[in-house]
Fold this sequence. Notes:
alpha+beta, Peptide Deformylase, 4 helices, 30% strand, globular
Amino acid sequence: MKLPLQYYGSKLLRTKATPITEITPEIRQLAYDMIETMLAHRGIGLAACQVGKPVAMFVASVSPDGTSQDSVNRIYINPKILWYSAEKQYETEGCLSIPKCYVPVERPLRIGAQAMDLNGHIFEMTLEGLGATNFCHENDHLNGVLHIDRTDAKHKKEIEKALRAIKASNSR
Ligand SMILES: [Zn+2]
């Protein structure tokens, strides 16, 4: 089932996610619904808070090496970034909860991360390029951090009006 999105201005986007202690049927269903919602909006990642659930889980359609958006949709539960490369990348990011606000964000080029899957298995991986950017963006959501918080003042100013408009329509 496609779930309604939370938009910029929603308190849920500023809430720190609660770790998931048990893979219940509800969590499983939430994961599948999040994938459906992400794909319906042509997104490449979606965090649970973006559909109104402040739990530590996100889904992504980008491969860890960042080279493909394949048909494998990945589910990351209680994700944790283990290390960051000193080498950075500077890419334009967007967010389904902040439509049309594309701004450049500096991120590590490579990260090491761990997460749990729907079977309760903890796995580790190295991510790079778009894979790393995407993981960092979604992981930020679980800490109540948005990509627009990480851009520079000049770009933040450029989207000020758009942000106000999203906030106004969200609080109606
Ligand atoms: Zn986002």
